[in-house]
Amino acid sequence: MSANVEVPLAADLGELSRLAEAVEDFGGANDVPPGAVFKLNLCFDELITNAISYGFDAPDKASLSVALAVEDGAVVAVIRDNGRPFDPFTEAPEADTTLAVEDRPIGGLGVLLVRESMDDFSYERRDGFNVVTLRLKLDGQETP
Q: Is it the case that residue 120 has pLDDT exceeding 60?
């Protein structure tokens, strides 16, 4: 039986460790393999760090949350924030992985990581919120 979880967050990077613990607890309660928990936390770290660092004009008025559920053999995660409209999948700079690491411009690797880690991802702007939905199938997940 899946227990849906919603984790409200302050617009503070210190909240990432609390979120990681909540994701680990969710994983343990829902038989989510450690490798999937690792991928989810890695993607949350990237996307939420960007939202907190660049998305809010008034961080004290920020509304940010992550909801988790297991549906049809996959973890579905929804990140919601009331920051400036921003679609990370179309608006973030694309990482040029053909360049040497020292020659690459900063940015884009986090979104590339999300694209490569998740089975499905989407963005929409709904009711004044950025809504990023991630889907990760549980079949075939290994320990990192």
A: yes
Amino acid at position 102, single letter: E
Which residues, in sequence order, are CB contacts of 97 under 8 Å at separation 6+?
104, 112
For 22-73, list the strands marked E by DSSP: 64-71
CB 66 within 8 A of CB 56: no
Closest CA to 20 of 46, 1, 2, 54: 46
23 residue type, one letter: V
Between strands 5-9 and 64-71, the pairing is antiparallel
Beta bridge partner(s), residue 127 = none
Encoded amino acid at 119, one letter: D
pLDDT tens for each residue of 57-90: 988 999 999 999 999 999 999 999 999 999 998 8
